[in-house]
Amino acid sequence: MKALVLEKKRVLNLREIDLPTDIGDDDVKIKIHTVGICGSDIHYYEHGKIGQWHVKTPIVLGHEGSGTIIEVGKNEKKLKVGDKVCVEPQIVNKKSKEYKLGMYNYDQEVKFWATPPIHGCITPEVIFPGDMVFKLPENISYAEGAMVEPLAVGMQGVTKAKIKPGQIGLVMGCGPIGLVTALAALAGGCAQVYIADILSDKLKICHHYSGLIPVDLTKEDLSSKIMKDTNGWGIDRFFECSGATKAYEAIFSCCSPGAHVVIIGMNAIPVPMDWSILCAKGLEFQTVHRYSHQYEPSIKLLEMGKINVKPMITHTFDFKDSVEAFERAAEHRPTDVKLQILVNDEK
């Protein structure tokens, strides 16, 4: 089957590769329609590794996928041929303690799409366990369906933040994860959410969203603005989504006493923290690794119009141009929010 294959660092080919074609009793086969390009896909392309995961053999990229069911295993009762779906791209060990505790995203044996050596979904057809495949309502497009995966990351962070209605949030980083986190925070009860970045072009998308307050860090002092706007109190919920070491400085200067801090972005180098100051403020810290139990609420928020991801989809490439799509994504243009690949345009 033809697929977008990362052979090694900086080497991509759209070529034939052997992939599974027979479904198991609990599986479904999906004709992939749309796949989003994630920052992790680009990181593997540019560096050949992320943390402990190294590209040692060729892998198919992509894990933000939507499509149509074309075959179901004999044990699958909820999904049927013709259903429009999106995929939560992790296969977990259902006997693991993590799974039994409901925190299956920390399963140490998880098989996650496009995480070496597991193949992803930039290919015309995939097979996946039916219990991790979710039917999409009629009013959600395939493109929006492919956005459920990144939205689930933001939802995981917001769930951990335990927002109370009317609180003020701050998101560091206006990339795709920063944006979906900010939108999830608004949907979860924040009255307004500041979103800060050093690239002004990235912040332009905020005009699509009521409740988001963009802060250009090259023109404004973040702490001064936050403290002025909150009468010296600070923000209640802090979300780090940039991975930039300097972004952590805002925790000290912008958080109110008792604020919740959620770390979502992955820092490339260790971050020094003065815990004596943080402890004196009574801050509560949470971290995010992927997500668990977030697909259904994410889909419902999209269905009801509580979250709109359409403005984030800035360009779509045909399957035949998949290599070009990754080369474009690797340019890191500030006006590109989410690039997607249209694998099949047939419903």
Give a written overview of the molecule.
The structure is a single chain. The chain has 347 residues and is α/β, with parallel strands linked by helices. The chain has two domains: 2-147 and 309-342, Quinone Oxidoreductase, Chain A, domain 1 (Alpha-Beta Complex); 151-287, NAD(P)-binding Rossmann-like Domain (Rossmann fold, 3-Layer(aba) Sandwich). 24% of the residues lie in helices and 29% in strands. The protein has helices at residues 39-47, 97-100, 142-145, 148-161, 176-187, 200-203, 222-229, 249-254, 275-281, 295-303, 322-329; strands spanning 2-8, 11-16, 27-36, 49-50, 53-54, 59-60, 64-72, 84-87, 90-91, 111-112, 125-129, 133-135, 168-172, 192-197, 212-216, 235-240, 255-263, 284-287, 313-318, 338-342. Strands 3, 7, 8, 11, 12, 19 and 20 form a seven-stranded mixed β-sheet that branches. A hairpin with a 2-residue loop joins strand 4 and strand 5 (53-54). It starts with a strand and ends in a 5-residue tail after the last strand.
